[in-house]
Amino acid sequence: TTTMDPIHTQDENNSNQKTVSSDNHISTIVIIIAMQTEALPLVDTFKLTEDRNSPFPKGTPWVRYYGSYRGLNVNILWPGKDAALGVDSIGTVSASLVTYAAIQALQPDLIINAGTSGGFKAKGACIGDVYIASEVAFHDRRIPIPVFDLYGVGVRQGFSTPNLLKELNLKVGKLSTGDSLDMTPLDEASIVANDATVKDMEGAAVAYVADLLKVPAIFVKAVTDIVDGDKPTSEEFLQNLTAVTVALDETVARVVDYIVGKSVSEL
Ligand code: ADE
Fold first, then answer.
1. Is 225 a catalytic residue?
2. Mean per-residue pLDDT for 176-182?
3. Catalytic one among 38, 140, 187, 236?
4. What pLDDT, on the 0 to 100 scale, is given for residue 24?
5. Active site residue: 51, 140, 225, 236, which one?
């Protein structure tokens, strides 16, 4: 017969493939992380392997690490290094592409976007705090025409996880995303309008794609620098990146431990 059984077409042990379970427990997660410094300690924690035969188009720098952690298929997706410049492919363009490609290839039950962020002390943020975003939006897509203005802001909700928040005692705040590490006065006005506590360079892009393809997404953001403080952002960011990554990765590991054996509606 030429009829394809969708479940048994490929190597059963290939963790590329979504496994079918008898209940609605989460079986596959994708963790999108923009910087190598943030990703590698988690690759180690979950004992993941780099996929040398990745499902992504040849020539893309996107890297998939995968493995089974306590029965959960865990994938860490890192957009990799820019081919010309050799630095991490941070920002919304790479994040949206890698999120789209990962959902298409891996059909995750849940996406986690984890990374560092700037925090606003006026909203209670301190260096090393780790936030779960209740809501994400853009702050650098200004289109002052009715309705296009709202399209530009592109607000989306983080997947609601009341039990996880309570159990792990995590901070909650709104996240604002833009493609610049610094903040112009116009960005600042939008960030205030977005009521954001934390500011990053990928979250709203990941949220856009996750919403398009109807995959629940949660956002875990650790604060490396205080945006409304007196230190230059890039200096403070680089100074704190390694130490804050420890806090970020510890929280992501606690979140994943909480997810094991649960369905998305139990989070
Ligand atoms: N990532 C870490 N710090 C940031 C900031 N201040 N703005 C945007 N992304 C960041």
1. yes
2. 97
3. 38
4. 86
5. 225
Share of the chain above pLDDT 70, in %: 91
How confident is the model at residue 4, as a pLDDT? 38
> Which residue has its alpha carbon closest to ligand 1 atom 5?
118
Q: pTM score, two decimals?
A: 0.91
38 is catalytic: yes
| Bridge pairing between strands 63-69 and 72-78 | antiparallel
Ligand 1 pocket check: which of 199, 202, 206, 227 to mutate, most ligand atoms within 8 Å of Cβ? 199
Q: Is the confidence at residue 17, as pLDDT, over 60? A: no
Closest C-alpha to ligand 1, atom 7? 181
Given a contact cutoff of 8 angstroms between Cβ atoms, the answer to whether 119 and 127 are in contact is: yes
Instruction: Give the residue among 31, 67, 30 at the shortest CA–CA distance from 50.
Output: 67
Which residue is listed with tokens 């025409």? Answer: 145
- CATH ID of 28-262, from 3.40.50.1580, 3.30.300.30, 3.40.640.10, 3.30.450.40: 3.40.50.1580
3-state SS, 241-259, equals HHHHHHHHHHHHHHHHHHH
Ligand 1 in reach of 233 Cβ (< 6 A): yes
Cβ of residue 117 lying under 6 Å from some atom of ligand 1: yes
Q: Determine the pLDDT at residue 2.
A: 37
pLDDT exceeds cutoff 60 at 15 = no
